[in-house]
Amino acid sequence: MKAILTTTAMTLALAAPAMAQSAMDTDGDGNVTLEELQVAFPDATTDTFAAIDTDADGVLSDVELQAAVDAGLLPAG
Ligand SMILES: [Ca+2]
Ligand SMILES: [Ca+2]
């Protein structure tokens, strides 16, 4: 799963411009926290966050969010 997500993230990083993150990053620091994720997705849990946070740095990058949408962890748009 992690390898698949990483591969997807790398592919999307080349193919897709930033989209999902900017809407969720309410404080504009360039990363999406669990709290910011839950604003957009109130049903998101810490398990969901951990599954999306593939590099485990505690925040979600645009690449990680795009990969999550692509993997069906989050609804698109
Ligand atoms: Ca933020
Ligand atoms: Ca991360």
From TrEMBL:
<dbReference type="InterPro" id="IPR011992">
    <property type="entry name" value="EF-hand-dom_pair"/>
</dbReference>
<dbReference type="InterPro" id="IPR002048">
    <property type="entry name" value="EF_hand_dom"/>
</dbReference>
<dbReference type="Pfam" id="PF13202">
    <property type="entry name" value="EF-hand_5"/>
</dbReference>
<keyword id="KW-0732">Signal</keyword>
<feature type="domain" description="EF-hand">
    <location>
        <begin position="23"/>
        <end position="47"/>
    </location>
</feature>
<feature type="signal peptide">
    <location>
        <begin position="1"/>
        <end position="20"/>
    </location>
</feature>
<protein>
    <submittedName>
        <fullName>EF hand</fullName>
    </submittedName>
</protein>
<dbReference type="GO" id="GO:0005509">
    <property type="term" value="F:calcium ion binding"/>
</dbReference>
<dbReference type="InterPro" id="IPR018247">
    <property type="entry name" value="EF_Hand_1_Ca_BS"/>
</dbReference>
